[in-house]
Specification:
By secondary structure, the chain is of the alpha/beta class. The protein contains 11 helices and 10 strands.
Length: 247
């Protein structure tokens, strides 16, 4: 990733779109302090990407999908799905220590508040995902909303089905592929905002003057076909809040 960012700097591009989470954004920031950068990343202030959401300063702006901050909500959903569970698991990528720390910390606090033990599983490759499921001891699995896991969603869904375990994530693509539940911001809306910001910068706007946007609408998607396959009765409290139900 740093090499790709450095190549863009050498090419003297007009703007860098650092999409796909925290690693591309950090690589772009480390590569240049002058070329405008538009990112999509969670907790940009905590990660040191910008000085503040309202006044980013410097050469970066973008959107924060709040993926890092949504772990407590996913823990809450999982506790509703499997109310008798003593242990739930969280699968995180092992190639992003900063984001990994924030997500684990948020999830652990939420799990403790619910009286749950949290098993932490880490993976950064296809084979490590397989290995993580071998170690899985929990009654439910939360999958980090991450580009790696999104690209391997079919593998994750198949493994969860094989283990007959409820698996939820922050990205709707996971549920559309056969995962049980997803809860998170609309990614389509995020791409639209990033495109709008790139257009403004190309017309002369300074990225440091464009506030980092946060989502105002979140989607709860439920896959009833998967629930039926798992022999799981979806709680009415979740169905009543669902924005979309896949049947």
């Amino acid at each position: 990733m740093p090499a790709l960012a450095a190549e863009l700097v050498v090419r003297k591009v007009d703007v860098i779109a650092a999409l796909g989470g925290t690693p591309p954004a950090l690589a772009a920031k480390n590569a240049t302090a002058t070329i405008p950068i538009v990112f999509g990343a969670g907790d940009p202030v905590g990660l040191g990407l910008v000085a503040s959401l309202a006044r980013p300063g410097g050469n970066l702006t973008g959107i924060s999908g709040l993926e890092l901050e949504l772990a407590p909500k996913l823990v809450e959903l999982m506790s509703e799905l499997v109310p008798g569970a003593g242990i739930i698991a969280l699968l995180v990528t092992s190639n992003n220590p900063v984001a990994e720390h924030i997500i684990i910390q948020n999830a652990q606090q939420a799990a403790s508040a619910k009286g749950l033990e949290l098993q932490i599983l880490k993976a950064s490759t296809e084979s490590e995902i397989d290995a993580a499921f071998v170690e899985l001891e929990a009654a439910g699995l939360i999958v980090q909303a991450d580009p790696l896991f999104n690209s391997r969603r079919e593998q994750l869904v198949a493994l969860a089905s094989r283990r007959a375990i409820p698996a939820i994530s922050g990205w709707r693509e996971f549920t559309e592929a056969g995962g049980l539940i997803s809860y998170g911001a609309s990614r389509t809306g995020g791409w639209h905002k990033i495109g709008t910001y790139i257009g403004k910068i190309l017309q002369g706007a300074k990225p440091g003057d464009l506030p980092v946007e946060q989502p105002t609408r979140f989607e709860l998607v439920v896959n009833l076909k998967t629930a039926k396959a798992l022999g799981l009765t979806m709680p009415p409290s979740i169905l009543a809040r669902a924005d979309e139900v896949i049947e």
